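Narrative summary of target 7.
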Amino acid sequence: MLRTLLDNFWTPNVWLPPNTTWDDIAPGPHKAVRYTDYRHVFFPIPLAFVFITLRFILQRTVYAPFGRHLGIKDTRNRKAPNNPKLEAAYRASPKLKQPCGLAKQLDMTERQVERWWRLRRSQDKPSTLVKFCENLWKFTFHSSNFVFGLCILWDKVWLWDIDHAYLGYPHQGVTDDVWWYYMISAAFYLSLTISQFWDVRRKDFWQMFLHHFATVALISFSWVCNLHRIGTLVLLLHDAGDIFVEAVKASKYANYQKTCDTLFLGLIIVWIGTRIIIFPYHLLWSTWIRAPMLLPMFPAYYIFNSLLLLLLLLHIVWTYLILQMAYRTLQAGKMEGDIRSSSDVSDSPAANNHHDNNIANNKKDT
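Modeled conformation, tokenized:
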């Protein structure tokens, strides 16, 4: 029954061009080119746990000591006073919905309940050093992977003429360097999908989860269907912008304000250039307009294009947040807050003090 289900799902009528079967693109010693092996799509799974382990080691031995050397303290927020009933209410729902009802039950004022709730939420927040280490790890990967991708694609004809990403498809061979580029990239995004559940949680948690899921799905399906050429271009384009995203965050946590401001300017240029200009007007244009002129279309191709459009939608949302940050930066004279998410701003001491003042003013008014 499972075999029948899999056969129906992987039918060549959906995943391959007309008049093409899985046997036609199966790797073998007598084939004219070296095709991708669908079994290798599982290779990134153990490699993802290697990345998680490597990250843990680097955070302990390199990133954390480097952060302390820069003056970043591993200080935790003050813990909320022990209150079993409030703790039970917090675990039931981290969002404070009825402070008045809880205050009456516990013979406390609303302000005391709200203050306890804020302390309880903040004690779960990671320290600045933990956030710095996370961003430094991502910066290390994206910068290394971008250089690696650029080196291996430099002599590939489809980097300079995107038509060659489609010409001759599906009979396009894969080289060892492209194989490693695909496996490493897939493993990293898979590791982020796993570790995201214990990493620093931001307001764009589900957007990032959706982004990682779409990326892993694109990498996996494009590998199985031998669409690796266009896949390498998508990976290269994404790494370029992410380098600056992580560098801006890390320099902000290290209090290198001038470096942060300079990198933020670079981020705006590179992000808009790659994600908002090159990605839709060059890459998506080629997949939607140019590709149908060069090869017969098939259902899976529209699945790939839909996932690429999903990435573009996420790019637009994050670009809006980045431009919002740029506007606030011009007003404040320096970069403040967190790229792609505003959660760190709302949880800052200044924000909490402002909230306390608002509560006090409301009490006076009543």
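The first helix runs from residue 2 to 9.
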